[in-house]
Design brief:
Strand content: 5-15%
Helix content: 55-70%
Radius of gyration: 20 Å
Order of helices and strands: EHHHE
Largest sheet: 2 strands, antiparallel
Distance between the termini: 20 Å
Structural class: mainly alpha
Length: 98
């Protein structure tokens, strides 16, 4: 079965699990950046300052990534809806379990 994605709902990007997944990955990246990898510039920071830095890093990363995804969906919808270009085509195969 061939399907073509003609429109991406911007609201579904923001309210889906995508920002939560990005937050979890960004939190992991923040912990690695601020706590695991040794850095001379971060040595005067206390443990709580490193935790706060990791959290703020993750929040900022989620906001920026979600904004980029919303902008990309808007541009995709503009090209497929207004200009009439073809959307992404998916070839889906049904698998029957016996």
């Amino acid at each position: 079965m061939k399907l073509e994605v003609r429109n991406i709902s911007v609201g579904s990007l923001v309210t889906s699990s995508v920002p939560l997944v990005v937050f979890a990955l960004a939190l992991l990246g923040g912990v690695v950046t601020f706590m695991v990898v040794p850095n001379v510039q971060l040595s005067p920071m206390t443990f709580m300052q490193k935790v706060l830095s990791s959290g703020l890093y993750a929040l900022l990363y989620v906001v920026i990534t979600t904004a980029v995804l919303v902008f990309a969906a808007f541009v995709y919808n503009f090209f497929t809806g207004v200009l009439g270009l073809r959307g992404v085509s998916l070839d889906i195969e049904e698998i029957h379990h016996d």
